[in-house]
Amino acid sequence: MIKLIECPRDAMQGRPDFIDTAIKAAYIDQLMRVGFDTIDFGSFVSPKAIPQMRDTAEVLSLLDMFKSKSKLLAIVANTRGAEDALHFEEIDFLGFPLSVSETFQQRNTNKSIEEALRAVEEIQNKCEVAGKTLVTYLSMGFGNPYGDPYSPELIADFVGKLDQLDIKIISFADTIGSAKPDLIKSLFEINANAYPEIEFGVHLHTHPDDLEPKINAAVEAGCMRFDGALKGFGGCPMAKDDLVGNVATENLIKILEKKGYDLGLDKNNLNEAMKLANVVFS
């Protein structure tokens, strides 16, 4: 079964003007009625680093959890953020951005890769105790603009380390929009065959014209977990100097439905969410 992960957090986090807390909550509430598997709704990170997300706990308190079967995911960048997130029983998943690029790991979380791997282990242990699931994003998973080493073998090495920590969900993140269909397909095939107990997903940042061949490549390789953001808003504010847009969820839906997948979405609520997105991101 295809899992769609809708990412309003990723859409919002790089915007310079603060989005009112009540507006955020209303938007996420609407998204939760659509039928997405998971909503990546916020993050427990330094407000100095990502000021847009400083109200995540307050947003959570305003959500109507009884109208939705969607699960909630919050991004954390360190053990302290994980501890903050784990206080909330409404949160099902914690997400940690682990980079295969030393430069980007420092830029994104102010850690070395070695320090980040220790944080993953600590957070994984805390998640297991709390009955939560840690999703590890392998950022720069399809290429590196900083001159750091990159290869499919390096990705496989990272996956092996995460498997040793008993990580069950890994999402390959194309942080800067550099993924090519052949590489997407080979990374999924190699790692999914080697680690069948791990759920692999893809979090792409891409230009709309390049999307369909990338999604087709992932599906053909067996990927069943896809991240997106309505209208393609957002991107990583810590990557390079320009934001590369997220996958527009509505385009992702069209591609997957064209391939014959029934995604089980409430299209009326999806249309309402798209209307609201125009207001939130105007």
UniProtKB/TrEMBL annotation:
Pfam families: HMGL-like. Residues 1-271 form the Pyruvate carboxyltransferase domain. Keywords: Coiled coil, Lyase, Metal-binding. It is an enzyme of class 4 (lyase). CDD domains: DRE_TIM_HMGL. Its EC number is 4.1.3.4. Belongs to the HMG-CoA lyase family. Gene3D superfamilies: Aldolase class I. This is Hydroxymethylglutaryl-CoA lyase. GO terms for molecular function: hydroxymethylglutaryl-CoA lyase activity; metal ion binding. PROSITE patterns: PYR_CT (PS50991). One of its GO terms (biological process) is ketone body biosynthetic process. It comes from Indibacter alkaliphilus (strain CCUG 57479 / KCTC 22604 / LW1). Residues 106-133 form a coiled coil.
